[in-house]
Specification:
About 35% of the residues lie in helices and about 20% in strands. The protein has three helices and five strands, in the order αββαβββα. The protein has a three-stranded antiparallel sheet with strand order 3-4-5. It has a two-stranded antiparallel sheet with strand order 1-2. One of its GO terms (biological process) is DNA biosynthetic process.
């Protein structure tokens, strides 16, 4: 896809949505893919299914950017785990330390 097109991001998102349509536990935002699974066996099956689909569409992954089999992960500005979703501290730091207004206008 050419750089600089005003709708390139939306077009690529639509394409990746089509690639991963119907895959259980797979969530994608542009080129970031999250796979949520209940157990290691299910995770392996989700990975196999995703890899097969990526291959079908001629897509590849940069393995050095991948994290496999973890129970917590930072994704799109949030820390995700089985029990909670919370914003990353460095993403809310400026809000927490924003000075209180000292005038009414």
């Amino acid at each position: 896809m050419q750089f600089g097109l005003c709708n390139a991001s939306a077009t690529f998102q639509r394409f990746t949505d089509e690639v991963t349509r119907g895959l259980p536990g797979v969530y994608i935002f542009v080129d970031d893919i999250l796979i949520a699974s209940k157990n290691p066996e299910q995770h392996c099956q989700h990975l196999k299914t995703l890899f097969s689909r990526l291959d079908e569409y001629g897509l590849c992954m940069n393995v050095s950017k991948c994290i496999f089999g973890t129970s917590t992960i930072d994704f799109l500005g949030f820390s995700l785990s089985e029990n909670e979703i919370k914003p990353l501290p460095d993403k809310v730091k400026c809000i927490l330390h924003f000075p209180k207004p000292d005038t009414l206008t």
